[in-house]
Amino acid sequence: MTTKIDFLSHLNPSQRQAVEHFCGPLLVVAGAGSGKTRALTYRIANLILKHRVDPENILAVTFTNKAAREMKDRIQKLFAEQLAMSEHGERFDLLTEYQQSQLKSKVYRIYIKDLWCGTFHSLFSRILRFDIEKYQDDKGRRWNRNFSIFDDSDSQSIVKEIVTKQLNLDDKKFEPRSVRYAISNAKNKGLSPQEFERENPKYWGRVVTEVYNCYQDKLAQNNALDFDDLILIPVKLFQQNEQVLNYWHRKFCHILVDEYQDTNRTQYDLIRLLVTNGEDSKNNWNWSDRSVLVVGDADQSIYSFRMADFTILLEFQEDFGDNLPDDDTRTMVKLEENYRSCENILEAANQLIENNTQRIDKILKPTRGTGEKIYCHKADDEIAEAEFVINQIRTLERQNPEVNWGNFAILYRTNAQSRPFEESLVRTGIPYTIVGGLKFYDRKEIKDVLSYLKAIANPADTLSLLRVINTPRRGIGKATIDALTNAAQQLGTTLWEILIDETSVNTLAGRSAKAVNNFAQMIRKSQEQISTVPVSEVVQQLLEASGYVQDLQNQGTEEADNRIQNVKELYNAVLQFEEENEDVSLGAFLESTSLSSDLDNLKEGQSAVSLMTLHSSKGLEFPVVFLVGLEQGLFPNYRSLDNPTALEEERRLCYVGITRAQERLYLSHARERRLYGSREPAVRSQFLNELPEELLTSAHQMKQTVTKTASVSSGKQQNIQNWQVGDRVLHKSFGIGEITHVFGSGNKVSVAIKFTTLGQKIIDPRVAQLQRV
Ligand code: ATP
Ligand code: MG
């Protein structure tokens, strides 16, 4: 393969500096949309192609799994382009689609599978799969490599059980949610229960320590880890075991971290340990053929509630550089051109963020045209706001045949704001996707099937076993389960050990004993299979043998049908996983499901409007962005109103939101809003007042659309009827149905209708011209 690296021409000189830097530390700081992520991606390609670094020796940390996948895809494409040059002497884009895909799959086999690219959580859980058996905590608790990963709701229910049942605490004083939050914070700060107690010696701290200890016992008994452990345990393991650290230090010669401003202390500790091999003295560090490159923007630090700390970014040069007089230029690159947003949008973002005191000034020069002004809109209430947004989307879509639904994003401060937008989108039939709604892997039926799989992979995982032991019902009642759990407790063993011990089981009444034995045999059979047949096959057999799908079929409801579809989709996910990955073991599959983040719902190129919180929008870009709910107390949120530090974080969040927009930006707020039940007058956000007035407009075009909406509404006055639950109606395209819910009243009414053929839909009767029949 040629070493003439062609793709460097896609970069500006500063990006090239970051990409071509070979050894030692390098910090890339720059504002939003300046090509940081692009530089990081190209750097990986360059390390491999030009410097012949083995992909195995590279560790690349991204903020979401989706970002990791995109990064791998991009690298794969760059490699395929290079390969085309060397093999065919031709440009990649001139090859046929078939040739392109052949080259890509060749590259995939050679390089991409070996690349360690993912989130902190996915990368370090992978490391734990290798080495967790060498770890024990300060109370001697141990885990094995088949550990389960408990999600937030699992952790929450364990804490609740400890607080209310095991320790019989007053759950008003020790609210399980806040206790769990305290434990999670302790872990994010790297504190074990003992260390936590030392920092919190008063009564509350001592009780939380006790819960923390019981919680760790429960995790260890289930051979399970929570999300925070996936970061904390590697730190402790590296500190405990020099050989383990040394192995990973030698392996990862080149470390890259995107969105470094949102790193927390434990994550920083991991990077630091891997880079320095635990050596504090800079004189002992060896930078030959080694590097660490981090990219970030302190103005986009928005995760302090998860203990992220942007001073870590600011201290990078001090931490890793040798502090020589010329260090600044050697260990830092600034990117100053913005490639994403039109000038007006960029100018607004820059002016807004200048109101923050805690920041380093940056230059961000536009490279695109001035663009349009920023549209600012005041709506009557949240419903009118949603109507305004959806009308704009429809108008833009009609005016421009090139545009697709995927070009639009609606960003809000809290998830609860999505509902009016969803209703409006459903009514108008526009496809949309909610990023960060109920995750696929959080749905009941999916958690059920995954629990079967977790129990197969890790039989010590009692939580999962208990979830499925009588799901679907198979005659193992509560009394039986209690008897088995008690036996396990008394004998100091796991539930699974009891289940497979026929002597214990046979002490149960005849029918229960038979049911338990059948269940244990079924799990055992799958366990035996798992090392010889593909996971997909085991899943298929299990779905049948467990009676899970049959049970749903017997229910015969629409809801049950949906659940069956979801279970089938899970089976598809296994097949896809098997196609795309090197390690196709059950453990690896389960790990990918546990760590799939909210953002993974957003599929590339999907033609649907995206709805998400501002936090989820980090790193993304859209041609048209609607930033909604700009009201005091909502955005900035009420907690920040009398807290200057929190207010600065809200402003950074607003900066992130504004800089997602490429061509058009809309900012909206409402005169009054119903949020969490009560209707309140709303005051426009101070952030709107901080934007330069000359960049804002309340567009003439917008007035037109608003008038149009008004006339649509008034034209359909005759259709404002008193709709009632139970009314049978005729819809022009959907046929006959029955009203099951009525939302709102007067000209704001919408109705849910169950259609005989299509199932439930929410309809605006003014638009749909319903007839009573
Ligand atoms: P954020 O701070 O939001 O994470 P970022 O700094 O990571 O942004 P990227 O997402 O890498 O920025 O780039 C923003 C946009 O600019 C992308 O569409 C990217 O393809 C484009 N871009 C980056 N560098 C260049 C370049 N040198 N020439 C042309 N386009 C570029
Ligand atoms: Mg980025």
Number of helices: 32
Largest sheet, strands/sense/barrel? 7 strands, parallel
Mean pLDDT: 87
Terminus-to-terminus distance: 73 Å
- Tell the overall outline: globular
Bound molecules: adenosine-5'-triphosphate, magnesium ion
**Percentage of residues in helical conformation:** 40-55%
Which regions contain 5 or more consecutive residues with pLDDT less than 50? 601-605, 700-720
Beta-strand content: 5-15%
Enzyme class: isomerase
GO molecular function: DNA helicase activity; hydrolase activity
EC number: 5.6.2.4
InterPro entries: ATP-dep_DNA_helicase_PcrA, DExx_box_DNA_helicase_dom_sf, DNA_helicase_UvrD-like_C, DNA_helicase_UvrD/REP, P-loop_NTPase, UvrD-like_ATP-bd
Write a structural description.
The chain has 773 residues and is an alpha/beta fold. It is built from 32 helices and 24 strands. The strands form 6 sheets. A 7-stranded parallel sheet has the order 13-14-12-15-16-11-19. Strands 3-2-6-7-1-8 form a 6-stranded parallel sheet, sandwiched between helices. It has a 5-stranded antiparallel sheet with strand order 23-22-21-20-24. Strand 22 (750-755) and strand 23 (759-763) form a beta hairpin. The longest helix is centred in the N-terminal third of the chain and has 24 residues, at 65-88. The termini are far apart. Residues 601-605 and 700-720 have low confidence and may be disordered. Magnesium ion binds at residues 36-37, 619. Keywords: ATP-binding, DNA-binding, Helicase, Hydrolase, Isomerase, Nucleotide-binding. Its EC number is 5.6.2.4. It catalyses: Couples ATP hydrolysis with the unwinding of duplex DNA by translocating in the 3'-5' direction; ATP + H2O = ADP + phosphate + H(+).
